[in-house]
Design goal:
Layout: H1 5-12, H2 27-37, E1 49-54, H3 57-65, H4 71-75, E2 78-85, H5 92-101, H6 107-120, H7 124-148, E3 152-156, H8 161-167, E4 174-183, H9 198-201
Antiparallel strand pairs: 1-2, 2-4, 3-4
The structure holds flavin mononucleotide (FMN).
Flavin mononucleotide binds at residues 14-15, 17, 70, 155-158, 178, 192-193.
InterPro entries: Nitroreductase (IPR029479), Nitroreductase-like (IPR000415)
Protein name: Nitroreductase family protein
Family: Belongs to the nitroreductase family.
Length: 205
């Protein structure tokens, strides 16, 4: 039986550490990756994220020095700073406007989503959680999009978030959640690591 290609890429993806430092990505390729990443779902369709694609040698060197000198930050064609935004409930009508205009959703639903989001994110902890959730889903989708385009990826949390926010001019509502290096794999990457058995991680309730 033929393996489904989406399942095959989930099963073969690895967190790469070695990248071909001579490989570059075009603007169009970076846009493609980001467009695919933004197909990830977000609460209330907030799309509360921003992707900073760091690819000049100078910017990669600055980012690398804020990421414990990890070589993949500068070896990979691009290292994305995946930012989650603190949710802004007032943006919801705009994010859904074409959907309402196409008559999929009544305007009253938009109003109740906006009120739901306002109440839910009044607590700063909840707002930050949502920023981290959205950026994490975007990063996961970016990683799988890269794999689908025959590119390797390496997620990283080992970086100075305050330094990255300062150096890359992030706004006060932007949380740098994860770095994701994307490029062509060089030889020497490990295979996918062992996963815990389902008996430990799955409960069917
Ligand atoms: C949120 C997150 C942060 C990570 N941070 C780093 C990092 O800073 N440096 C690094 O070399 N690997 C990092 N990793 C890679 C993990 O070690 C790797 O995903 C894990 O060992 C599983 O490897 P596999 O995906 O190849 O099976 C990170 C992974 C995730 C998901």
């Amino acid at each position: 039986m033929m393996t489904n290609p989406a399942i095959a890429l989930i099963e073969r993806r690895v967190s790469a550490n070695r990248f071909d430092a001579d490989h570059a990505l075009t603007d169009a390729e970076i846009e493609d990756l980001t467009r695919l990443a933004t197909r990830a779902p977000t609460a209330y369709n907030l799309q509360n994220w921003r992707f900073v694609a760091v690819r000049t040698p100078e910017a990669k060197a600055r980012l690398r020095s804020l990421a414990h000198g990890q070589a993949k930050v500068s070896d990979a064609a691009v290292t994305f700073i995946v930012c989650g935004l603190l949710p802004d409930h007032t943006a919801i009508p705009e994010r859904l406007r074409p959907f309402v205009q196409a008559r999929y959703m009544p305007a009253s639903t938009v109003a109740s989503w906006q009120e739901g989001a306002r109440a839910q994110y009044a607590d700063p902890g909840m707002a930050r959680d949502e920023a981290v959730r959205s950026a994490s889903l975007g990063a996961a989708t970016l990683i799988h999009a890269a794999e689908a385009l025959s590119l390797a990826s390496g997620p990283m949390v080992g970086f100075d978030a305050t330094g990255v926010a300062r150096e890359f001019g992030l706004g006060p509502d932007e949380v740098p959640v994860m770095l994701v290096a994307v490029g062509r794999a060089a030889p020497g990457n490990w295979p996918q690591k062992p996963r815990r058995p389902l008996t430990e991680v799955l409960e069917i309730a």
